[in-house]
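1st attempt posting a full record on here, be nice pls
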Amino acid sequence: MGSSSDKLRAAEPRARRTIFVGFRKAAIQLWGEPGLAEIGQIMPEEVRAATVDNVVVVGEWQPERYVMAWYDAVMTGPAKGDRAVFTKFIDRMMDAGFGTVRKLLLQLASPDQVAAQAADLWRHDHTHGVLTPKKLDDQTQLFVLKDHPYTTTVLGRFAVTEICRYATELTRVKNVTAWHAIHGDELHVTVKYSR
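the predicted structure (as tokens):
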């Protein structure tokens, strides 16, 4: 008989609780409690009850569709459709979600080291999907995400692109840019930087 984590991997795609803790902290940091309340009013009741209404997000894993609901609510609500504001939200979520120790480790790592750990970092926080890194040259990394709901929506793809860009930026390289393309059912995120 499989473990409970094996059963989760066979069921609906899920994200680790720390992502939602990061969402809450980012929303409060950027827009205060009124911003968090606005986000909660926009999202489905089930998502709000699980990730906004309670002070503590209960359960180690929540459905990935809750992540997508957060993205939609932030973009529709306090970000007001502005991608630059949404990007700040993603970056603050990563700061809060990574925690102080993981963020410090990223700052000490090289982009190559971060890319080498990308698949493990993904599996730590998500029950589904495969993230595969590939070094294209000394200043360019490719991250390929497949078999995951984030590849199916504009905001999901945008968020993954920013997550890859910001994680690379935390390594203290310069001029970090990122873009994405869809190839079949795969999301290809290219991150370029200078040293």
